[in-house]
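URGENT: need a sanity check before tomorrow's submission.

F., can you look over the Sigma-70 family RNA polymerase sigma factor record below? I want to be sure the sequence and structure line up before it goes out.
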Amino acid sequence: MTKEDEHSFVKLLEENQNIIHKVCRIYTNNYSAHNDLFQEITIQLWKAFPKFRGDAKFSTWMYRVGLNTAITLYRKSKKRIKTQEIDTIQFKLSAQEYDNTEEEQLKLMYQAIHQLNDIEKALVFLYLEDKNYKEISDTMGISEVNARVKMNRVKTKLKKILNP
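Structure tokens as predicted:
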């Protein structure tokens, strides 16, 4: 890789690094795991950058590499023994003037998302990123119709999880 390519990669990565953070937020439960996944996605992007042809937008390509990396690591982690992370246990003092309704709703939503399978998580993530079905289908490598059908099923599944 030339110095020019390296500079181009670093510039594009810096401009779009929030994509990686969002992928990490969907697939991890704590700060340490988030950082590990962020680093792994960055490494995979670096390795794959020479093959980036520019047929799609850099951000679309970045979503694809990031999601594929996260899904691969997520599947590997499913084979490990589950333990509870200490930082998921929170002790809070309640303050009457603080309304945490929105925070609690987001927490419930993320808990529900964590119950989805890896492909469903990717669909929800892209949907929440306001990607249209064409972009979702391009990123996931499925047809636009398939993306719509899968998303409708995921919405139904999330509703059942959130309202048993």
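My own read: The chain has two domains: 1-89, 93-164. Confidence is low (pLDDT under 50) at residues 92-96. If you see anything odd, call me.
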